[in-house]
Each structure stands twice: as structure tokens, then as C-alpha cells.
User: Fold this.
Amino acid sequence: MSGDVSVSVADWIDASFEAEVASGLAAFNAAQLGASGHRELAVSLYRDADFLGGLAGFTAWDWLFLKWLWIREDARGADLGSLALDAAEIEAKKRGCVAAWLDTLNPAARNLYARHGYAVFGEIADFRAGQARFFMQKRF
Assistant:
């Protein structure tokens, strides 16, 4: 059958292509695991109208996934990362989550997550330029 299939490779993702693949995968996963209950989650940090950073992720299948946590360089060292992380975990628990997971390349971020009870469950030792990529989780 593969003889009559055309293959196309591109350096961009068309919105309709992305929607088709995402809906197909979501349907497959729902058949295997049940409905995910996927909900986006964002934590924004401001001082007055000044944006200092934030956290982006989502909750699904009773887990919080932390996609990004970023604090503006001149605002670092004031426990804002902890503030954002705590707020995300509180919201995740309200949504019925039992755990959280993430990946990070940043040793300082790894230390932050470890201080908050996250443990490494996987590592890619030489991910890029000698730096490791860590996969971490925390049960609530």
C-alpha cells in the first residue's frame, strides 16, 4: 500500500494540517485513556502594569504539564518563579490533578523544581552542547 502514498515535507505547519493531526491523535488517545479534560493554564506576574514573567502549561488526564516558566532577568532572585509555580499547582489541584511533570534544560530551573518537590524521572545526558535535558515530576 505504501507504494501509492505521496510524502510531502515542509518547514512550516499549516493550520488545517495541525488541526487534522491533533484531532486524530486526540480521538485515538481518548479511545485509549478516556477524555483528557485538556485545559490551558497560564500564570502571569505583574508589578503594577509591568509584566515580570509567567508560566504556561495545561492540565489533562489529572496531570499538570508545565510547558514554560520564565521570569524577566531583572526580576529574578525575588522568588517569582516559586510564586508562579505555587499558583499553577494550586489551580491544578482545584482541577483534580494528582501530579505534575515538566522538562528543563536549565540547571537553575532544575534546582527550583527540586526545591518544590519535583524529582528527575528521566534524562537525556548530552542533549545539546554538553547540556542535559531533565524530565521531572511531582505527585501532589
